[in-house]
Amino acid sequence: MAISSVYVICxxxxxxxxxxxxxxxxxxxxxxxxxxxxxxxxxxxxxxxxRYCPVGEGASPEDWTGAIADEIKKxxxxxxxxxxxxxxxxxxxxxxxxxxxxxxxxxxxLCEEDGxxxxxxxxxxxxxxxxxxxxxxYGVFTFGGGAFEPAADAAAASDVAVxxxxxxxxxxxxxxxxxxxxxxxxxxxxxxxxxGRGLAKEEDLEMCRQLASxxxxxxxxxxxxxxxxxxxxxxxxxGITGVQVKPDLILVLGVSGQVQHIGGINKSKVIVAxxxxxxxxxxxxxxxxxxxxIYKVVPALIxxxx
Length: 306
Fold this sequence. Notes:
CATH superfamily of the largest domain: HUPs
Order of helices and strands: EHEHEHEHEEEEEEEHEHEHEEH
Oligomer: single chain
Number of strands: 15
Shape: elongated
CATH topology of the largest domain: Rossmann fold
Number of helices: 8
């Protein structure tokens, strides 16, 4: 193995299984670090050990970074995997500062080369991939959803304990306003209907949802649909800065095919694109392409597949 120990730190339990599977592929020992209680820690599968960090009312997971760094430093060398969420990136940065290292953000994959952990990252707006490796004792990586396949037969860890040390209360939460967004986990979806700016209005999402229903698929979108139009939750957009997916089938509707979006869907096994612009870049990345109006193609598909 390139490294003996990997610490997986995650504020999202859904992403934990993926990161543990990725860590297992490159390390002899995997320690998962979660923010919660003992019961949550005992439900974690895929790690050799679990350390849980209790987070009290008004406190923050970031308060535990000092104690986590001290625990990591007990190893002569170690890698740290963190999920690529807003909080995850904050934790990654704080840990890197304490470990005197850097953060490789949004790594696409990981492998072993010449005894080192090497990650691939998308650069220059998605037009190229760069391979990078740490030369020091510690390294911090952040991974988005879909980077690894979760293990189907992962067992619960027998070594479960509270994280040694104590949180450093740097600030206190005084209010909590939860967003009402309800998203799907596109990273594990086997079929996806991908909606782009070719859709004229929000009400037309219904026909895309109907198509997804007959296909047994989930609905995702390009970044402008979620961030600019706000027609779908931000957790639904795919791209270099969004969710990176690798379904068996993705049906791309009205998506131009800019590199930012392609970087999130190019690992799909089969890409089928529908766009009325025959010069749209999406066709260069599709396995099958149909030049046509989605307002005619989608209803026809629903009728045929129902």
